[in-house]
Amino acid sequence: SLYGLKQSGRMWYNCLSEQLLKRGYLNDQICPCVFIKKSHNGVVIIAVYVDDLNIIGTSNEIQEAVPFLKGEFEMKDLGKTKYCLGLQIERVQNGIFVHQSNYTRRVLKRFNMDKANPFSTPMVNRTLDVENDPFRPCEENEEVLGPEIPYMSAIGALMYLANCTRPDISFATKLLARYNSSPTRRHWNGIKHIFRYLQGTIDLGVMSKKSKKAEVIKESSVVRDLESDYENSDGSVNTDSPISEHGHVEDDSAGVCSSKKKLVVYDPKCDHSTLQFVLGMRFDSVMQLKSAIQKSAIHNGCNIQFMRTSQKQVEARCIDSCPWRLYGSLVQSEGRVAIKRLVSEHQCFRDIRTRQATSQWVANEYLEKFRKQPSIKASDMQDLIMDKFGVQPSKWKLYRGKYKALEILRGSESEHYGCLRNYIAELQRVDRNGRFELLLEEGHVFKGFFVGFSALREGFLQGCKPIIGFDGCFLKTFLGGVLLCAIGKDGNNQIYPLAWAVADSENENNWRWFLTILFQELRIEDGLGWTFISDQQK
């Protein structure tokens, strides 16, 4: 017996499925109760609901399918489908009209709205002001509806209508369904507004026009070329949510309407002067969120302070008494960062000295500028930044930014010291008779680096007077140090570079090391016949 045992339903399905598969029908993977058969004569679809079968297809295939089913199973042909699962199906001259007028009347009567005055729209006009939006979430001191108000039952009834034949109430119903856990009187009024709209539009439904071609279904074609996409222009239908509503409107007689939430994802290439942060907005990482906050603050002249940051969360606020606040954290299931709390209102005045215009920001923003003009003046940079962003970092920040940019382009000095041995090897390869020597102290710590090219040495010995000048100067670099140098006079009484060295400091030991190597290269033993000039005679 079909209704006698718990397993009867499955046994019936297995039996029916076996016969249909033998006949060449294919079981749909998404909906196992739908069987499809295609042939040169056309296509036929059998939709199974318990022991009721709906057959859709071309005339030839239907005429073949019905006798086959009657031969395999004891069944009655009820003719063309007029009523199925609450759906009323009417055949009109130019297509098929599906509606739920009877179901709508029962729903209105069930919720005592069958005598209500009708409305012309499914929901009230809303405002972008979150505080005045009637569909905002439940507030702290607001009373939640009790169990005597059938809020979720109403949502369920409306959802069935929206999903089947009333796409015009789809958005309003789904919006109110988001507050199932804590509905308020405001949300219940929204439900009643939909009921009033249905009261005036009971006979509306979905019209599927006749196809111009013989085929009922095109292969894997639900959304075709005539499809249009519609989306709210501000990117966020909800004033309290960044998720916009995205829908398909069909003109290909399918009579299908679908919508889907669409997350607002941050675009690094956007115009940060008009960037609006919203709840739920997605970012690839915490660093990307921090960068977006910083760029927005610079464009708008706001002084934002980061209260706490880590790999999984970031919290920022505007200084002084400005109410602006933002908190974002990692969404584990997505691997992205979302804004969880936000107060988006700024009450502060624009500050051209905003603290977010840091030296690192200057370096990143104007990296290509420093590549092309490494000697650009700080005053010129101030003018450029003021013209573009309306802020004016201090000259010290600009100096630091330039240094960091050049460090990015050329590498850091610390990295360069690590390459000294390779540099010496290259110098020795091109100048085998030159003298290139490192001075290291215990622990392989850098003390000095001597550079003496053989061409300079031989040119001095063969064509210059025996006069050598010595001097040292400080290096204006991040790591400091001094430059020790030796120069001579050529035949035209011009300065002749002889040798030089970079050392950690100017002291007796470093000078002794430098002079020892130089004298060895010039073969100076006792100094007789030589003149040495220095500012360190004392």
The tally of strands reads 22
Helix share of residues?
A: 25-40%
Total helices: the number is 15
Helix and strand composition category: alpha+beta
Tell me the radius of gyration: 41 Å
Major beta sheet, strand line-up: 17-18-21-20-19-22
Number of structural units classed as domains: 4
InterPro entries: RVT_2, Transposase_MuDR
Pfam families: DBD_Tnp_Mut, RVT_2
Region (Disordered): 228-253
Domain Reverse transcriptase Ty1/copia-type: 1-124
Describe what this molecule looks like in 3D.
The model is unreliable at 213-237 (pLDDT under 50). The protein has four domains: 8-79, no CATH class; 86-217 and 226-262, no CATH class; 359-410; 418-534, no CATH class. With 538 residues, it is α+β, with helices and mostly antiparallel strands. Helix 8 (359-365) packs across helix 11 (395-410). The protein has helices at residues 8-22, 59-72, 101-110, 151-164, 170-177, 185-200, 286-300, 359-365, 367-372, 378-389, 395-410, 413-418, 420-430, 454-463, 508-522, and strands at 26-27, 34-39, 42-49, 52-57, 83-84, 87-92, 95-99, 205-209, 228-231, 244-249, 257-262, 282-283, 304-309, 313-318, 325-331, 336-343, 435-441, 445-452, 467-474, 482-489, 495-503, 531-534. The protein contains 15 helices and 22 strands.
